């Protein structure tokens, strides 16, 4: 009996949780609409090739590396930071894992090497931001330069071909017609989503980005957590490096060029605030896919990349403007509903 | 300077420079000003007295054009005017020096002095002209040694105060409003400031002077206006002759304490000592603070802003690291400077700045409530969202937080309900020592009564509570025991019912007087 009495608040909470998630999805629906629209354009201009399994595989295989990097970037940006070094870390990891020495130890060591190099660079970023109190922009800008430089030095600016066939055979294979790279992309997104939305680590990431001081005064170890978030971004770069090496069967210091810009663009049009505290991985995923489809449309129709870049810029600005208007509308509406005692916005005028 | 010229009480002949009559200013849920009158003559130092929350700052912001009054008139040099913006006030010759200096530390002295009205020709700044004029102003203030090219951030507090004053003069101000200008100054710097003020008034400039230190008002003031609860309770008193007791009584007004006592009357059986603070010190903030709080006891820290109250709370909580002394909870000493250690021992802090220090405004109430207890609401790192929602919903219910929607964004809650969300965070965590810093700031009158009731209920369940408030009646009314702090020293530690509002006011304001 008492249990039954206990239930109502929970149920009402469930209902509003549902309402909340539905409301949250409204923005993503708009974004998904843009994606669908782009697919329709692709289908109309290239009806015979666009929706073939071949093209979809190619598209997603190309999207895989940048997608994984964007997952890490989403974590960093939600935590209130920025990571400009992702492209360079991809380059360094890809070079380090394909040196003759590393390749001689076999594919497992190659993979581990990429992951460790990525993670290490990320943790160095994190330690500098957290404990060295260097602004994220500067820290990762420095890493961007240094990691790329180290990659050039290690490789002597030569493209290092992968001769280890065990590695290429595994990562270039397909399971049930789905390329391994695409499966990896899906896995990284799934794990990222669970960590961000279902674990205390994720909750703390949002909390730190939303109000670092409040998080600190709630007993959260903000410094350690921030360092780990950059570590995650670095680790994602390591995974992306494996993908790039698998796709091109080579490692080079020119890999991952401009990945930081593409990743930030995907995260931002996915609705994550650059100021931190708010954002979603699903938005990021849609953001990545929008750019991928756009790319495919342009290559399939043999259009120049310059026009593609112009379109890309327009989409970034358009998406962000759209979010501003919806955010403003949402902000105006709800408080007027049922608030019994209105918020005294500036009563401390008499108290300071 | 001949003060007796100005000290004459209410002689009719002189036309006031400024007259504010019946000024009303409403904020949602609060009448911040409820009919204030203020009359200032050219060449006088007019002191504005009142407790925290009496409406002084709102009044001067109205005068500075930062707030628009909802009723009342402002007469400036015989002409009824409106001040729609700070620029309008400056153009009339009304300059305000705010308590927190509104200077830009990374710019030079000259750039700050002419900020907003830069010396320029065809859109190009004329730095030489600005430098020369700034140098002249500083010389007039007796501080030619300050270079107009110096970065303001490198100056001492006194130096910055001078820049602020130079800026007021640069606008050719006829009325300068100074809000606690001596708060950050050493005593020789205060002397210099007073000399400058005397010279200014001798040249016909009027000064509206706000200070909590009665002895300053006696030294430089001519007339005094006392405001209380947004109303003028006494106008144009003689600043030097009025007895201290009269001024304090006027500021304190009727005995408000009874309102709190009723709630707290059912006395709580006190338990063992839960929080024990021994010789806690931090250089330049507070010295040798020692007290203990029993389970069920409410201890209030009274004192002016800047007396070190919030610093004491934050140091107990580990958000600041103590230079000396210990804090122990239930006999176990906390690790200094470690919030995690305090939280683990069951200490909770509701900080002074709710929005910037405590809340995640764009997250739900539930996520805010469980923020300090994430480890308890997780298994192997995965959040247990059902339990989390259930517990936060029942806590919100217990605190009567409205609307009782655990998924509502905190941003959309009223001030009082936001404060409840902060308290709920520590209740869910099972805290046994609760540190409340200005819990009713920005909370409207009705919601305050509820918070008072809540604080008493918490104490009744055996929570040890330390309360900081700038409103003395609130501290006296809620607390069982009161510590009075002044400039970092504990002046008294006494049962609340042995103290009156006047006693506490005397202690926090005098001291430096005699």
From TrEMBL, chain A:
- What is the name of the protein in this document? ABC transporter permease
List, alphabetically, the Pfam families matched: BPD_transp_2
Keyword Cytoplasm in annotation: no
- Where is the segment annotated Disordered? 326-352
Listed InterPro entries: ABC_transp_permease
Give me the segments passing through the membrane: 26-44, 65-92, 104-127, 171-196, 227-245, 281-298
Location, primary (coarse class): membrane
Query: How does the record classify its membrane topology?
Result: Multi-pass membrane protein
Subcellular localization: Cell membrane
Please name the source species: Prauserella endophytica
- Domain of life here? Bacteria
Record field: compositional bias (Basic residues) = 326-335
Which keywords appear in this protein's UniProt record, sorted alphabetically? Cell membrane, Membrane, Transmembrane, Transmembrane helix
């Amino acid at each position: 009996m008492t249990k039954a009495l206990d239930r109502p608040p929970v149920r009402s909470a469930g209902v509003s949780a549902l309402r909340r998630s539905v409301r949250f999805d409204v923005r993503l629906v708009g974004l998904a609409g843009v994606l669908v629209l782009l697919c329709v354009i692709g289908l109309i201009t290239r009806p015979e090739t666009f929706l073939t399994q071949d093209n979809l595989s190619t598209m997603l295989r190309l999207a895989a590396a940048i997608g994984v990097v964007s997952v890490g970037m989403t974590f960093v940006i939600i935590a209130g930071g920025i990571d400009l070094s992702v492209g360079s870390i991809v380059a360094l990891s890809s070079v380090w894992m394909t040196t003759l020495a590393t390749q001689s130890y076999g594919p497992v060591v190659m993979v581990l090497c990429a992951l460790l190099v990525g993670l290490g660079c990320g943790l160095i970023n994190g330690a500098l931001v957290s404990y060295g109190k260097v602004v994220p922009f500067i820290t990762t800008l420095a890493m961007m330069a240094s990691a790329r430089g180290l990659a050039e030095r290690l490789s002597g600016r030569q493209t290092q071909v992968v001769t280890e066939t065990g590695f290429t055979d595994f990562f270039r294979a397909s399971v049930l017609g789905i390329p391994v790279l695409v499966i990896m992309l899906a896995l990284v997104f799934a794990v990222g989503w669970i960590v961000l939305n279902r674990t205390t680590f994720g909750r703390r990431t949002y909390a730190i980005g939303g109000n670092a001081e409040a998080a600190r005064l709630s007993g959260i170890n903000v410094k350690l957590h921030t360092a780990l978030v950059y570590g995650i971004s670095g680790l994602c770069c390591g995974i992306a490096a494996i993908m790039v090496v698998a796709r091109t069967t080579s490692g080079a210091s020119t890999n991952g060029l401009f990945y930081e810009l593409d990743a930030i663009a995907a995260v931002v049009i996915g609705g994550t605030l650059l100021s931190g505290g708010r954002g979603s991985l699903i938005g990021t995923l849609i953001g990545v896919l929008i750019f991928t489809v756009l790319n495919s449309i342009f290559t399939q129709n043999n259009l120049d990349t310059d026009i593609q870049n112009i379109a890309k810029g327009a989409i970034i600005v358009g998406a962000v403007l759209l979010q501003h208007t919806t955010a403003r509308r949402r902000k105006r509406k709800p408080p007027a509903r049922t608030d019994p005692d209105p918020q005294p916005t500036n009563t401390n005028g008499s108290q300071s | 300077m001949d003060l007796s010229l100005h000290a004459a009480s209410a002689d009719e002949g002189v036309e006031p420079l400024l007259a504010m009559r019946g000024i009303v200013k409403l904020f949602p849920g609060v009448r911040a000003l409820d009919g204030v009158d203020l009359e200032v003559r050219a060449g006088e130092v007019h002191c504005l007295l009142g407790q925290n929350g009496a409406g002084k700052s709102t009044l001067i912001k109205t005068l500075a054009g930062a707030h628009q009054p909802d009723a009342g008139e402002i007469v400036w040099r015989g002409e009824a005017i409106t001040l729609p913006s700070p620029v309008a006030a400056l153009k009339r010759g009304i300059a305000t020096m705010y308590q927190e200096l509104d200077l830009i530390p990374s710019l030079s002295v000259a750039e700050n002095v002419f900020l907003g009205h830069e010396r320029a020709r065809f859109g190009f700044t004329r730095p030489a002209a600005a430098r020369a004029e700034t140098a002249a102003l500083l010389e007039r203030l007796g501080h030619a040694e300050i270079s107009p090219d110096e970065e303001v951030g490198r100056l001492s507090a006194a130096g910055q105060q001078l820049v602020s004053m130079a800026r007021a003069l640069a606008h050719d101000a006829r009325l300068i409003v100074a809000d606690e200008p001596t708060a950050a100054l050493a005593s020789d710097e205060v002397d210099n400031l007073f000399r400058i003020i005397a010279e200014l008034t001798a040249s016909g400039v009027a000064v509206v002077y706000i200070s909590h230190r009665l002895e300053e008002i006696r030294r430089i003031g001519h007339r005094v206006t006392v405001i209380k609860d947004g109303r003028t309770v006494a106008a144009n008193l003689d600043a030097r002759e009025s007895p201290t007791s009269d001024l304090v009584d006027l500021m304190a007004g009727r005995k408000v304490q009874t309102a709190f006592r009723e709630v707290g009357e059912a006395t709580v059986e006190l338990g063992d000592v839960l929080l024990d603070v021994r010789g806690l010190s931090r250089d330049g903030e507070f010295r040798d603070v020692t007290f203990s709080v029993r389970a069920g006891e409410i201890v209030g820290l009274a004192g002016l802003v800047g007396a070190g109250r919030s610093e004491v709370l934050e140091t107990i909580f580990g958000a600041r690291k103590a230079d000396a002394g210990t804090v122990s909870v239930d006999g176990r000493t906390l690790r200094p400077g470690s919030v995690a250690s305090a939280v683990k021992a069951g200490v909770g802090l509701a900080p002074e700045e709710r929005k910037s220090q405590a809340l995640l405004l764009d997250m739900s109430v539930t996520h805010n409530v469980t923020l300090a207890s994430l480890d308890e609401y997780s298994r192997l790192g995965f959040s247990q969202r059902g339990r989390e929602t259930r517990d936060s919903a029942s806590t919100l219910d217990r605190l009567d937080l409205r609307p009782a929607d655990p998924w509502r964004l905190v941003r959309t809650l009223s001030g009082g309900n936001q404060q409840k969300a902060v308290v709920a965070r520590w209740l869910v965590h099972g805290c046994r020592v609760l540190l409340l810093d200005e819990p009713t700031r920005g909370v409207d009158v009705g919601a305050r009564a509820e918070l008072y009731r809540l604080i008493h209920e918490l104490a009744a369940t055996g929570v040890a509570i330390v309360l900081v408030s700038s409103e003395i009646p609130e501290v006296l009314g809620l607390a069982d025991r009161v510590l009075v702090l002044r400039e970092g020293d504990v002046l008294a530690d006494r049962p609340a019912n042995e103290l009156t509002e006047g006693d506490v006011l005397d202690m926090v304001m005098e001291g430096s007087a005699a």
